[in-house]
Amino acid sequence: MAEEHSGLVTWSRAEGDVGRVTFGESPMNLLTSDTCAGLLTAFDALEEARVRVVVLASDPEAKVWSSGVDLHQLSLDGQDCMQWSGGLEQVLRRVRLFPAPVIAMLHAGVYGAACDLAVTCDLATGTPASSFAITAVKLGVSYNTGGISHFLGALPLHIVKEMAFTGDPLPAEDAYRFGLLNRLVAPELLEQATMELARVVAGRAPLAVAAFKAELRGLTTGVPLTADEFEEIQSARSATFASDDLKEGVGAFFEKRPPLFRGR
Known about the structure:
The chain is an alpha/beta fold and 264 residues long. The protein has a domain at 4-186: 2-enoyl-CoA Hydratase, Chain A, domain 1. It is built from eleven helices and ten strands. The strands form two sheets. It has a seven-stranded mixed β-sheet with strand order 1-2-3-4-6-8-10, sandwiched between helices. It starts with a strand and ends in a 9-residue tail after the last helix.
């Protein structure tokens, strides 16, 4: 399978039954709407090619694996920016439902919504630079409930709470200790370690691996919410998108100053 591309996303059969997807461009490797569309196209093509594992990487020239969504595309009109039909949400579902395992190869820091993408992958490899930061509270925005459930499937509850409440990064060493990273290696060994893991997975019985992925996905899906609980959460989330704090958080980000949140 020759290398193909759609915008800032490229994909190919790297070797044997291992697929490779690379997205973004330096310096931010943003998950723009166009990039999300390209990722969906790439995963469709690799599923048709019947690869047995996918390695998901970003432009290695960037100082971050991804800074998440492009805040220039964030609506400040009070609408929920993490809707079910949104591009990033479609990518997350595609990764979860892809029949073969997806390995996130994380050469650097992972920020904002990109954390959701990284933890949604089935496995992850990284370097000492691979920190993880859920930055929503620094902007005055909230994650959707599905996104939070992805974190709870990868990290202990109180670690998720600290990340969510503070917005501070989780260092790579802690991510490895808590099991978020399957491999933690020196930068020059990342490619080798990731491909070795990918080759092992690709060499196993693909129908059995697919069955295990489906079982584990079902067993780790978030605890069902009552109708009242869901409505309460949605009301709280809607308040963040309609708040002055969101405008202040985004404005402060672009002006490179600390935000002054007033809780309204």
